[in-house]
Here is the input.
Amino acid sequence: MDWLRELADFAPQDEAEREEQRVLLDYCRTFPQNILTRENEFAHLTASGFILDPSLEQMLMVYHNIYDSWSWTGGHCDGDPDFLAVALREAQEETGLTRLRPQTGKIISLDLLQVNGHRKRGKYVCPHLHLSVAYLLIADDTQPLRSKPDENSGVAWFPLGRLEEICSEPLMLPVYKKIIRRAREQAGLPAAEGI
Here is the structure.
């Protein structure tokens, strides 16, 4: 599938999502030559996976070194227009999981995420936007886990109810909660307590 079509086919559920999708698509159409790479220093596409266990009661998070918080998995597309493949690859690399699958294979969330200036591999990276394409991924919570020391310093399963306790990124909490609500709705489950 054409990657722009995949982004356009996402069905926003409220005004905020419609506007963020519109801006994201406009920017992608304006900069098709480098929007999939970090060469576009102002904004570029990323793909992430929010990982839940099969019961949709636990989430797998990594302790992100730059953001100093428990976080989802994901990374830059670096030229790859297959967003789901990027999300799966990043999840495997960052957690050590060998078996995981998408809940539906469809985008669960599109977001414009602010990234503050930071140092990465000894070099300063200017503030920019991640044009985030997210999927819900499912993994068995009995699989062995391992961290990826250049990116995270921990990988652990948590009950959904601990999200606000473990995530210290206020801008990410609404994104994570939205994904959890949608995942449970799609599975016909009631909302998780506190989410």
